[in-house]
Write a structure and sequence with these properties.
- By secondary structure, the protein is α/β, with parallel strands linked by helices.
- It is 30% helix and 25% strand.
- It is built from 15 helices and 23 strands.
- Strands 1, 2, 3, 4, 5, 6 and 16 form a 7-stranded mixed β-sheet that branches. A 5-stranded antiparallel β-sheet has the order 19-20-23-22-21, sandwiched between helices.
- Helix 1 (15-26) links the parallel strand 1 (4-11) and strand 2.
- Helix 3 runs antiparallel to helix 4 (81-91).
Length: 487
């Protein structure tokens, strides 16, 4: 049977793929959007949204327990039932994507439920349906949890973030493998609901890719909530008998618990997609793309990728940022008006081999730039960061200056009192007189980070930052203190 002709095929409908499919359909292109799981991907069902609902509830418990140091006395009894109910009813619709599907099809895209396999340039098969895209294919199949090759682990009923999010009942005790953002956020949540939690991390510190000061702050905060932390430990074997886990460490120690959460990172879902049919390697960790999100040269024109599969971090905001680039590039090649209203001109061939029009936005529009990629670990205190860490900047050979300010020493930190732990750390390139990285940790660290993202992204001169007015008394005013301490 001849493939059905369409303009664009979007394979994988996480937040990035869904955005691309919807916007291109609204622009008048014929779009087939393919997803075998839930439209929207990990974020709305098992990631960003429900986990932050859990964190909000856990932080409310922590704040109630701080009343004694601020405003009298308060006693709180933790109850998981309202949290599970809110996640089920408000966030996930009981893990049903009908609303997302209706939103997508309402924009004009055609939704196909199933596993898509690329069979050649511009061609995708879903079961017995076959489609050919004249403009190209956008790959956004996301990532799945990376399960370490630990003896016995795969034979046990371990949790990933999905089971932790879906749980209707608190575990009697919890062991967390992994001291990254996901592991720490969930560890603190369950600990604040009264669950004994132990975190095991193979690196010598938590949040190993962030600043050492962030690692220390996170460890102190979790220990204050009763979390037992083991860093620099390696797991040799995992057993599960009579409803309990036994985790055997390389030093001979054994740690027991009712539940085991594996939060040791994520890997791209590239196997089984048929990437070899367009010259891409399905064994790669991630898809290599250029700054217009176009896939490797072996794929020819008309292959883009967005989101986690590109290896720029498992962040919703990265996927949405990349989606905007793909949308502009596809519309330019399709001869559609872009956001700038620019007309189209001739450009590279599409997957069908025919010339495709290409507007100025394809060559001169905004391209991917990750210098100021923001990231936030939503523990309490929140730990936000942007750009390079101090060590990364030194490894690049930059003339590094560092400025620190402790939040508790600021006016707002002193007013805030209990729960005021945090800091601002600035990493500057003295040669260029600009910030290349920063960390904002504190009660609203992720919000304060916004100012630092602008500074890094915009290459704002340090002199300009020093002569700004910082509202008093705010947490972000500590940025001024850190600037004063630069060098």
């Amino acid at each position: 049977m001849e493939p059905e002709q369409v303009d664009v095929i979007v394979l994988g409908l996480g937040v990035g793929g869904e955005e691309v499919a919807g916007k291109l359909a609204e622009a008048g292109l014929s779009v087939v959007a393919i997803e075998q799981n839930l439209v929207g991907g990990e974020c709305p069902y098992w990631g960003c949204v429900p986990s932050k609902m859990m964190i909000r509830a856990a932080n409310a418990l922590a704040e109630a327990r701080r009343v004694d140091e601020l405003a009298g006395q308060a006693r709180v009894t933790a109850d998981w039932a309202p949290v599970a109910k809110r996640i089920r009813e408000e966030a996930t619709d009981s893990w049903n994507d009908r609303g997302a599907v209706e939103r997508l099809t309402g924009k004009g895209a055609r939704f196909v439920r199933g596993r898509g396999i690329i069979t050649g340039p511009g061609e995708v098969r879903v079961d017995d349906r076959h489609y050919r895209a004249s403009r190209g294919v956008v790959i956004g199949t996301g990532t799945i949890p990376a399960i370490p090759p630990i003896d016995g682990l795969t034979k046990t009923p371990y949790w990933t973030n999905r089971e932790a999010i879906e749980t209707e009942e608190l575990p009697e005790s919890l062991i967390v493998l992994g001291g990254g953002a996901i592991g720490l956020e969930l560890a603190q949540v369950f600990a604040r609901f009264g669950v004994p939690v132990r975190v095991l991390e193979v690196a010598d510190r938590l949040l190993a890719t962030e600043e050492p000061e962030s690692s220390e702050l996170a460890a102190e905060a979790l220990r204050a909530d009763g979390v037992e932390i083991h860093t620099g430990v390696r797991v040799d074997r995992v057993d599960h008998e009579t409803g309990r886990f036994a985790v055997h460490l390389s030093d001979g120690a054994r740690i027991d618990g009712e539940r085991l959460l594996v939060a040791t990172g994520r890997r791209a879902q590239l196997d089984g997609l048929g990437l070899e049919s367009i010259g891409l390697d399905p064994n790669d960790r991630f898809l290599t793309v250029d700054d217009l999100m176009r896939a490797g040269a072996g794929a020819g024109a008309g292959v883009w990728a967005v989101g986690d599969v590109t290896g720029q971090g498992a962040f919703t905001h990265v996927a949405m940022y990349q989606a905007g680039i793909v949308i502009r590039d596809v519309l330019a090649q399709a001869g559609q008006p872009t956001a700038s209203g620019a007309p189209a001109s001739s450009g590279p061939p599409t997957t069908s081999g025919e010339p495709a029009p290409s507007g100025p936005s394809a060559g001169s529009g905004p391209r991917a730039d990750y210098r100021a990629l923001p990231r936030v670990t939503f523990t309490d205190p929140e730990i936000g960061a942007v750009g390079l860490t101090e060590q990364q900047a030194r490894d690049q050979g930059l003339n590094v200056q560092v400025g620190m300010a402790q939040l508790a020493s600021s006016a707002r930190g002193w007013i805030h009192k209990v729960g005021n732990e945090g800091f601002i750390k600035l990493v500057a390139d003295a040669e260029r007189d600009v910030l290349v990285g920063a960390t904002s940790a504190g009660p609203v660290g992720g919000e304060v980070l916004g100012a630092l993202v602008v500074a890094v992204h915009g290459r704002v001169p340090l002199a300009t930052l020093r002569h700004m007015m910082y509202a008093y008394p705010t947490f972000h005013r500590a940025i001024e203190d850190a600037l004063r301490n630069l060098g």
